[in-house]
Specification:
It comes from Alteromonas aquimaris. Keywords: Membrane, Transmembrane, Transmembrane helix. The chain is built from 8 helices and no strands. It is mostly helical. α1 crosses α6, α2 packs across α6 and α5 packs across α6. 38% of the residues are buried.
Length: 239
């Protein structure tokens, strides 16, 4: 299992380091491969993340303590994750307002945006070790879905930050993945904290997937998007 985790980590890192060389992803309308990857990510959210969040909520409900005994706190944490990344997206949009994507983003905003995604990547890698579904099949589904999710995120970050992302951002995000996995291997947080991190990841992933597919300027492709959903859903139900 450790070898499989390490292979997934290297795949995640390679995507950030070299996805910029995949010129066919820069097509307009949006590359069908990016829309397919977005569809897989959405399918993973609804088929895997939501049921696992329901299990987490059940475990919270059975725990003692004021916070853990509240109703729906799993979904509240997920909402926080979604809101945080929505705020970041609005901040970046405001930086581009007026001059389009050619406007240079302030360094402070660039580093805030990249640091947030570094923490996000590190969290994904940490939960690669501490997943709800600790089977080999669960690992494979998680690795494939997150790899395609990283591909979509990488494209969006390159569009926002251009040369700054190529020079610094991709290396930072790759290092965060490796660090997150190492922390996952050699540290183990309280189960309630891990569950809270998983819920936060769920909400964050929902926003980060949909913000890349839904805006009109993305000119997303519907059929590849739906095909990605169908393929991933079919694999899940056939395994």
């Amino acid at each position: 299992m450790v070898v499989m985790q390490l292979m997934a980590v290297f795949l995640f890192c390679l995507i950030h380091l070299f996805a910029g060389k995949l010129r066919f992803l820069d097509a307009i309308p949006r590359s069908r491969w990016l829309s397919f990857a977005g569809g897989v990510s959405v399918a993973y959210i609804f088929i895997h993340l939501f049921p696992e969040m329901a299990e987490i909520q059940e475990s919270f409900s059975e725990s003692e303590g004021f916070w853990l005994s509240l109703e729906h706190q799993t979904y509240f944490i997920a909402l926080i994750g979604l809101s945080v990344f929505y705020g970041l997206e609005r901040l970046i949009k405001s930086e581009h307002a007026g001059d389009g994507l050619m406007k240079r983003i302030r360094p402070s905003v660039f580093w805030l945006h990249l640091s947030s995604f570094a923490l996000y990547n590190g969290l994904i890698a940490y939960l690669l070790v501490h997943r709800q579904d600790d089977t080999l099949t669960g690992l494979l589904f998680y690795a494939v879905a997150m790899a395609l999710h990283f591909l979509v995120n990488d494209y969006g970050l390159r569009q926002h930050h251009k040369d700054s992302y190529r020079a610094y951002g991709r290396w930072l995000l790759s290092a965060a993945i490796l660090l997150g996995w190492v922390l996952g291997r050699y540290t183990e947080l309280n189960e309630s904290i891990i569950h809270s991190l998983f819920a936060f990841l769920g909400g964050s992933t929902i926003l980060n997937v949909l913000k890349e597919e839904l805006p009109e300027e993305r000119k997303s492709r519907f059929i590849p998007f739906v095909l990605g959903i169908a393929v991933f859903a079919g694999l899940v139900y056939l395994h």
